[in-house]
Design goal:
about 800 residues; mainly alpha; five-stranded parallel sheet; two-stranded antiparallel ribbon; 44 helices; about 5% strand
C-alpha cells in the first residue's frame, strides 16, 4: 500500500516461519484454550513447562505460543539465555513493558539504582545517619544480620565479640554495607537484590494486570537460566515473601530437561508439563511437503538424516531439491545441508558464521573475511533467513544442534584454518575492546559494560584458537569480572565452558562448569570463585592482589572482619604500590570505629593514588565520621575538583556544613546534588532537614514526599516525617509516624528517642521514659537519649 511502512526483514522472516509452522496441534490447543478458562477455574493453568532434547522445536513452539498470546490481547515478554541473573530478568521485563506502553516505573527506578551500585561502590558511600536504626536487642540484632545474609557467628566475629557487643555493633555492620553502595537504603540492594527488587516487580505487575486481559511471560532456553532462576520463579508462583504474581499471569518455561526436583517437587501440581518428542513421520512429511520436498527418495533421506528433529528437517528442506548420496550412511544433516548448497561462497560463509557465539553484520564480516565474497552484506542477509538462525538481543544466533556439528566439522577438516580463523576473530574483538576502553586505565575499563562485551568474545576466540597464553590471560581477568558482580562473573565463567565444548577440551570445559557451579551459591558464590582463582598458579601477582582485595571487600560486607583484614594484608604484600587494598583495610577499621588506624591507611592510599577520587572520598568520609569536619571538607573539595558531579561528595560536604551551622552552604551543595541525580534519596532527606532548620516546612515536605515515593518502606524517611510533624507541634501525628518507622525497623533507636520527646510534649513523661529506656537498651552509647532521660527524671521527681 502506498505510503505504508515497509516491513523489516525480520518481520518478513517471522511471517514466513509462522506460515510454515506445522505440527504440535495438541500443544497449541492446550495453550490456546487456557486463555478461555478463567483463573478461578480449577482447570486453568498458571505454569507450563515445555521440555525436550535440543533441536526438537522448543523455541519455534514458544514463538507460536507468543503469537497465540498476542491474539488473546496478552502482554508478552520473552526471556532467554542472554540474562545471567534475576536483576537482568527484571531489566528485560521493564524494557519490554515500556515498549508495550505499560512502563514499570517504580521498578525501573530501583533498577537504575542497582545498575549504579558498582559505580557507587567504587566511589564509596555515605554512612548511616548518626542516629540511624540500631539493634533492638541481641535477638533482633542477630535476626537483622541474618536478614542481610551476614551472620557474624559463622565468621571471625564469633570468637571476638560477646553477645552484648554484637547487639551494639549491628549498626556498624549495616554501615559497612552502606559504605559500598552510595546510600543507606542501597545496602539491601547490594546484599539481597532479589529480596529488594522483587516486591516492587510484583506490585508493578499487579498494577499492569488490572489494565490487560493477560500477562504472558516466556523463559526460553531454561536449561541455562534455570539454575539461578528456579527458586525465585517458584517463590513468585506460590507466593510468599515477595508477594505473588497476579492471577491473570501465565508463565511458560522451555528447556531441555525436567525441572529441578529439589526446587519444584513439592509444587509439581502447579506445573503443566509439555514434553516434546521429534516429529512423528506424518508431521515430518507434512513439513517437507509444505516446503516443496515431495520426491520420495529425498524425503526418506531427509527423514533419516534429521532424525525428525524439526530444526534439521527445516534446514535440510531448504536445499533438498533432488535426491543424492542417499546411500551414504556416514553423512550428517549438516554435511548434507552444506553439500546441497551449490554456492561455495555460501557454504564457506555458513561454516564461518558458526564460529562466533553471536553475529551482527560487523562480526559476520570479520568471520567471513576469507570466504571470497564480494558482497558480505547480501551474504549476511541470506544467512539470517536460514531456519537454524534466530535473533535476540540485536544479534543473530545459530541453533546449537546445527552450530555444534559445524564447529566439529570445521575443526576436524582443518585444525590450522580453525585456529587461524579464531585468531582473526580474537584480533577483531580485541580492536573493539581497545576502542571501548580507549584512554582508560585497566581498573576503569573493567567497570564498563561495553568493554566486557568485547573482551569476553575476545577471550572465547583466543581460547578456541588454543593459543598457549590465552588461558592464563583469561584467568587474570577473573578477579575483575568478580569485582563487577555475580552477573559479570557468570558471563566470564560461561566463556570457558563454551570454549571447552567448541574445542572438545575437557579441562577447559570442567573449569568453566566448576566456576558456574560455585556461582550458584547466591550469598557467597563470588567469594567461592575468587578462592578457586587464588588456587591457580597461572594467576600473576597483580591479578592475585586484585582477587584478595575483592574477596576482602566481600568479606567486609559480610561482617567477617578478621578474614577481610587477612585478605587486604595479602594484597598489600603482593602489590604495595596500589591504593585500593589500603582503602579496603581502612574501611574495615572504620566499621570497627578504629578511626586512627583507618586514617593511617587512608593516607597510604592517597599517597599511592594514580587516578580517580576513591582514595580522597573514603578518607573524607572517615574524617567526617571521626569528628574532623575541616579535614573532611578538604578531602571532599579534592574529590569535587577532580569530579565536579560527584553526588556523594556534594551530599557529605553539605552534611558537614549543616552541622557547622552553615545551612545556606549545605543547601547549595544539596541543590546541585539533586540537579545531577534527582532521585538521590539521601540528598532529598538531608535537604528536608536543612529546610526544616530554616523553617521552610513546605520545602521540607516536598522533599520527604518525593523520597517516600521513591522508597515507601524506608524507616529513616518515615522517622524524618515524624520529626517534621513534631516540629510543627503535631505531636499525635508525629507519634503515628514514629510507630510506623519502628514497625518497619524495630531497632530504630532514634525513632524511640524522638517519640519520647513527642510523648513528653503531650504530658506523658512515663511513656517518654519508657521509650528512652528502650532506646538505651538497644544502644547504650546513645548519649543524647541518656541526657534526655536524666532531664525528664530531674523534672518529675
Amino acid at each position: 500500500m502506498a505510503g505504508s511502512a515497509r516491513p523489516s526483514m525480520q518481520e518478513l522472516i517471522n511471517i514466513r516461519r509462522h506460515a510454515g509452522f506445522v505440527g504440535r496441534r495438541s500443544e497449541l490447543d492446550l495453550f490456546r484454550t487456557n486463555f478461555d478458562t478463567r483463573p478461578e477455574d480449577p482447570e486453568h493453568r498458571f505454569v507450563f513447562h515445555i521440555h525436550g532434547n535440543a533441536g526438537v522445536g522448543k523455541t519455534t513452539l514458544v514463538r507460536e505460543l507468543v503469537r497465540i498470546a498476542h491474539e488473546r490481547q496478552a502482554l508478552t515478554v520473552t526471556v532467554d539465555e542472554a540474562v545471567n541473573s534475576v536483576p537482568e530478568v527484571l531489566e528485560a521485563l521493564t524494557a519490554r513493558f515500556a515498549r508495550l506502553g505499560h512502563p514499570l516505573k517504580a521498578l525501573d527506578r530501583m533498577l537504575a539504582t542497582y545498575r549504579r551500585r558498582r559505580d557507587e561502590a567504587s566511589a564509596a558511600s555515605l554512612a548511616q545517619p548518626e542516629q540511624g536504626p540500631t539493634a533492638a536487642s541481641l535477638t533482633a540484632a542477630q535476626a537483622g544480620l541474618i536478614g542481610l545474609g551476614m551472620v557474624p557467628a559463622v565468621g571471625a566475629l564469633a570468637a571476638a565479640v560477646d553477645p552484648a557487643q554484637l547487639a551494639r555493633g549491628a549498626d556498624q555492620v549495616r554501615a559497612a554495607l552502606s559504605t559500598r553502595t552510595g546510600r543507606p537504603e542501597d545496602a539491601q540492594l547490594l546484599s539481597e537484590p532479589i529480596h529488594a527488587l522483587t516486591p516492587t516487580l510484583v506490585a508493578e505487575l499487579d498494577r499492569v494486570a488490572s489494565h490487560a486481559p493477560w500477562i504472558a511471560i516466556f523463559f526460553d532456553t531454561y536449561e541455562r537460566t534455570g539454575p539461578f532462576l528456579d527458586t525465585w520463579l517458584r517463590d513468585l508462583v506460590i507466593g510468599g515473601r515477595h508477594g505473588s504474581l497476579p492471577a491473570n499471569a501465565v508463565i511458560t518455561l522451555s528447556g531441555q530437561g525436567p525441572l529441578d526436583p529439589n526446587c519444584w517437587a513439592d509444587h509439581a501440581d502447579l506445573v503443566t508439563e509439555i514434553p516434546l518428542a521429534p516429529f512423528t513421520e506424518p508431521e515430518a512429511r507434512q513439513l517437507l511437503a509444505a516446503k516443496g520436498v515431495r520426491d520420495e527418495k529425498v524425503v526418506r533421506d531427509v527423514l533419516r538424516l534429521s532424525r525428525r528433529l524439526p530444526v534439521l528437517l527445516s534446514t535440510l528442506a531448504e536445499n533438498a531439491a533432488r535426491p543424492g548420496d542417499v546411500d551414504d550412511p556416514s553423512a550428517t544433516a549438516v554435511e548434507r545441508f552444506l553439500k546441497w548448497e551449490r554456492d561455495p561462497v555460501r557454504r564457506a560463509a555458513a561454516l564461518a558464521g558458526a564460529l562466533p557465539r553471536r553475529l551482527n553484520e560487523d562480526i559476520f564480516m570479520s568471520a567471513v573475511s576469507d570466504a571470497g565474497s564480494s558482497d558480505p552484506t547480501a551474504l549476511y542477509d541470506w544467512l539470517r533467513t536460514l531456519p537454524f538462525v534466530s535473533e535476540s538481543g540485536g544479534f543473530a544466533h545459530y541453533h546449537d544442534v546445527v552450530r555444534d556439528p559445524m564447529l566439529r566439522l570445521r575443526r576436524s577438516v582443518s585444525p590450522d584454518r580453525w585456529r587461524a580463523a579464531h585468531g582473526r576473530l580474537a584480533e577483531s574483538f580485541g580492536q573493539r575492546r581497545e576502542s571501548a576502553g580507549a584512554g582508560l586505565a585497566y581498573g576503569e575499563q573493567v567497570e564498563r559494560e561495553a568493554w566486557w562485551v568485547e573482551r569476553l568474545e575476545e577471550i572465547y576466540h583466543l581460547l578456541c584458537a588454543q593459543q598457549r597464553p590465552a588461558f592464563a590471560q583469561a584467568l587474570n581477568d577473573g578477579p575483575a569480572a568478580c569485582g563487577e558482580g555475580a552477573e559479570s562473573a557468570r558471563r566470564w565463567a560461561q566463556v570457558f565452558a563454551e570454549a571447552g565444548e567448541a574445542t572438545a577440551d575437557d579441562a577447559l570445559r570442567d573449569w568453566g562448569t566448576g566456576c558456574l557451579a560455585a556461582l550458584g551459591d547466591e550469598q557467597r558464590g563470588v567469594e567461592k570463585l575468587l578462592g578457586m582463582l587464588l588456587s591457580r598458579t597461572e594467576l600473576d601477582d597483580g591479578a592475585r592482589a586484585s582477587a584478595f582485595v575483592i574477596r576482602g571487600e566481600e568479606r567486609s560486607d559480610a561482617g567477617r572482619y578478621a578474614d577481610a583484614f587477612a585478605d587486604f594484608d595479602r594484597a598489600i604484600a603482593l602489590a604495595p604500590q596500589r591504593a585500593r587494598p589500603y582503602t579496603g583495610r581502612a574501611l574495615v577499621h572504620r566499621a570497627l570505629s578504629q578511626y586512627e588506624q583507618a586514617l593511617a591507611d587512608h593516607d597510604r592510599a592517597v599517597e599511592r593514588r594514580v587516578t580517580g577520587v576513591r582514595a580522597f572520598w573514603h578518607r573524607g568520609e572517615t574524617n567526617r565520621i571521626a569528628g574532623h569536619p575541616e579535614a573532611a571538607v578538604v578531602d571532599f573539595d579534592q574529590v569535587l575538583g577532580i569530579d565536579p558531579g560527584h553526588v556523594p561528595a556534594l551530599a557529605s560536604r553539605a552534611r558537614v556544613a549543616h552541622t557547622q551551622g552553615r545551612p545556606a552552604a549545605a543547601l547549595a551543595d544539596l541543590d546541585l546534588a539533586l540537579d545531577i541525580k534527582p532521585d538521590h534519596i539521601w540528598s532529598l532527606v538531608r535537604r528536608a532537614q536543612v529546610r526544616r532548620s530554616l523553617q521552610d516546612t513546605t520545602g521540607a515536605w516536598t522533599d520527604l514526599d518525593r523520597a517516600q515515593t521513591l522508597s515507601p518502606r524506608n524507616p529513616w524517611i518515615v522517622g524524618e516525617r515524624g520529626e517534621l510533624l513534631r516540629q510543627e507541634g503535631r505531636h499525635t501525628e508525629a507519634i503515628a509516624e514514629y510507630d510506623r518507622a519502628l514497625a518497619l525497623d524495630p531497632g530504630y533507636s532514634w525513632a524511640l528517642g524522638s517519640r519520647a520527646m513527642a510523648n513528653e510534649a503531650l504530658g506523658r513523661p512515663t511513656q517518654a521514659l519508657t521509650d528512652l529506656d528502650r532506646a538505651l537498651a538497644m544502644n547504650p552509647s546513645y548519649n543524647w537519649a541518656a541526657q534526655q532521660r536524666e532531664r525528664i527524671l530531674a523534672t518529675t521527681l
